Design the sequence.
């Protein structure tokens, strides 16, 4: 690659603060809009190369502003960021051709067909070879299942088709990094599955994917890493497995003798024992579940139901970002 | 990095796009977009209808016998004058309006649709985007002017014949040299419209509403013309954008005069440069939140 690798041996110290092999990194990234509103507040991103990074956060938490800064659309008030080792916005011209992006929903010329819209984007790309244009467009349309509707005018597309076209635009070139803002928004269930499979395939082929989404099931299915935004701050960032391990599993016992059950659980060394509507729950310890059950029965607790539940990502997410329904201001 | 640095970074980031290959693909795509758009085609059709209306009206009111040295008389004597009459009639509002509509759409239209953010992340450098957009505006201005002239000449010759043309200085030139004069006038008018286009491009970087931008440009153009009619404001008249527009009469003299066309070209050049610089300053540092 002619642009060289800035993380190479020539200047190792310069980027020491940036995790080696980070496809996306930022330090102290802050954006204060003219009204004084701080949309992004000291965000230190580190998206490892080859990861599928779920970028989560409630509406208005600063995800999209962060993504816009990463793509050079908005200049940060302070802080810096890099994509694929090149500083944004200084190296945007050499870095962005290797990045496919979907920002805040699809946007195309309504009176052009899907294919014509892709041709226009390709024409604007200096890095794109004109001779392979039609082949690449055909391939991208095939990958998102839009080949049959490629000749229709964009304005006649459904939301799902528009979303597919935007993904096709991100795939016009072989990319090293995809930044996808809610890629499955508006897709039907089949489309959602296809897009998830597509993202997984791309990730398997070595593409780093930064995926902003509200759908926690999506994150659980395809993400290896998670970053959670709340009120402009990055409140958590770690491998998904670690994030989930940090919140312990709980046992819950359905019984009409909760006091007896609580006593047994305490005797067995369980912590955070608490009554529920139909029984008792406690933080699961080292003891295997079948052992717990036999001890309960031995103590004469009438057990109606027994379950060990790992908190789902939604619980983790809510514990990080709060319960409130209101959007972040 | 300070805010100022960050802003400057956007500017240099856009300007320092690596040269790969001199390609006209993006320009051709832009031209396709401008000329392929139904609205712009309708505008061209309306512009082209004016010389036809003029020719029919003159032919109806004054059969080709010719009575006086006025424009109507001149038209009825020579078809080429239909083109000049049409250009003169449309220079006040129709031509600037058509150019304003296209120029205002250049950035504001893309921003309004959201396509601006996708162009910039392709990436298209902001300077390159402005250059290509302005080239599209210029092409449309030139095409509109040439279309009016061509239709004017064609209809004029059909109705009144293509004989000798009497110049403002009194001498006569043949049909082909007359076409040459018309071509020169088209060039001059396009230069004047280039300033309108640059203004439109600048306003287009300020807003996400293309219609609002077009209205602003037309209001500016018309208020210039109104100021130009107020005698008490004579000291500022030479500095108005529209003041020299009708100076193209210079090009209908033998030899060609430059007393109006010279300052007119200078004025158009300065207005164009100032508005393009303003457009660049604005777009180069703007946060794209659309």
Sequence:
């Amino acid at each position: 690659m002619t642009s060289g690798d800035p993380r190479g041996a020539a200047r190792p110290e310069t980027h020491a603060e940036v995790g080696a092999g980070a496809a996306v990194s930022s330090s102290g990234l802050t954006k204060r809009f003219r009204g004084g509103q701080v949309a992004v507040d000291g965000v230190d991103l580190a998206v490892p190369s080859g990861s599928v990074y779920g970028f989560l956060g409630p509406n208005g938490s600063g995800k999209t502003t962060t993504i816009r800064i990463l793509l050079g659309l908005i200049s940060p008030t302070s802080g810096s960021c890099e994509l694929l080792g090149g500083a944004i916005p200084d190296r945007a011209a050499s870095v962005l051709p290797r990045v496919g992006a979907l920002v805040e929903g699809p946007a195309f010329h309504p009176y052009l067909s899907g294919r014509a819209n892709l041709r226009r984007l390709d024409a604007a790309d200096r890095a794109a070879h004109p001779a392979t244009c039609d082949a690449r467009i055909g391939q991208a349309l095939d990958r998102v299942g839009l080949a049959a509707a490629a000749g229709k005018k964009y304005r006649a597309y459904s939301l799902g088709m528009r979303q597919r076209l935007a993904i096709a635009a991100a795939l016009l070139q072989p990319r090293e990094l995809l930044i996808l803002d809610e890629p499955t928004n508006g897709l039907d269930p089949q489309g959602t599955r296809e897009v998830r499979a597509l993202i997984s395939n791309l990730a398997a082929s070595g593409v780093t994917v930064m995926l902003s989404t509200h759908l926690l099931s999506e994150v659980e299915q395809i993400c290896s890493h998670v970053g959670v935004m709340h009120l402009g701050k990055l409140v958590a960032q770690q491998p998904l497995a670690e994030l989930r391990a940090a919140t312990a599993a709980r046992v819950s016992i359905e019984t009409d003798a909760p006091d007896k059950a609580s006593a047994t659980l305490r005797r067995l060394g369980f912590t955070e024992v608490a009554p529920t509507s139909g029984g008792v729950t406690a933080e699961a310890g080292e003891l295997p579940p079948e052992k717990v059950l036999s001890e309960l029965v031995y103590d004469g607790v009438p057990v109606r139901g027994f379950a060990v539940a790992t908190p789902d990502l939604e619980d983790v997410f809510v514990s990080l970002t709060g319960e409130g329904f209101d959007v972040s201001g | 990095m300070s805010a100022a640095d960050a802003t400057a970074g956007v500017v240099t980031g856009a300007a320092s796009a690596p040269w790969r290959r001199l390609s006209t693909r993006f320009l051709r795509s832009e031209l396709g977009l401008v000329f392929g758009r139904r609205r712009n085609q309708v505008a061209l059709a309306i512009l082209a209808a004016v010389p036809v209306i003029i020719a029919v009206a003159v032919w109806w009111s004054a059969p080709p016998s010719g009575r006086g040295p006025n424009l109507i008389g001149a038209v009825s004597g020579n078809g080429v004058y239909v083109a000049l009459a049409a250009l003169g009639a449309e220079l006040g509002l129709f031509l600037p309006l058509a150019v304003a509509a296209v120029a205002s759409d250049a950035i504001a239209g893309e921003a309004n649709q959201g396509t601006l953010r996708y162009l910039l992340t392709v990436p298209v450098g902001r300077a390159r985007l402005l250059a290509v957009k302005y080239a599209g505006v210029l092409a449309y201005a030139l095409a509109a002017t040439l279309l009016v002239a061509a239709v004017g000449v064609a209809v004029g010759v059909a109705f009144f014949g293509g004989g000798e043309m009497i110049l403002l200085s009194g001498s006569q030139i043949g049909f082909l040299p007359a076409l040459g004069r018309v071509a020169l006038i088209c060039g001059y008018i396009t230069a004047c419209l280039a300033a309108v286009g640059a203004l439109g491009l600048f306003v287009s970087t300020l807003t996400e509403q293309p219609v609002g931008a077009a209205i602003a440009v037309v209001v500016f153009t018309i208020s210039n013309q109104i100021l130009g009619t107020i005698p008490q404001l004579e000291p500022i008249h030479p500095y108005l954008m529209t003041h020299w527009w009708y100076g193209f009469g210079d090009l209908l003299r033998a030899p060609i005069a430059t007393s109006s066309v010279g300052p007119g070209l200078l004025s158009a050049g300065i207005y164009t440069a100032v508005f393009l610089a303003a457009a660049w300053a604005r777009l180069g540092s703007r946060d794209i939140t659309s």
Q: What stands out?
A: Strands of chain B lie at 165-166, 172-173. The interface with chain A takes residues 1-3, 6-7, 9-10, 12-14, 16-18, 20-21, 23, 25-26, 28-29, 33, 37-38, 113-115, 117-125, 285, 287-289 of chain B (CB under 8 Å).
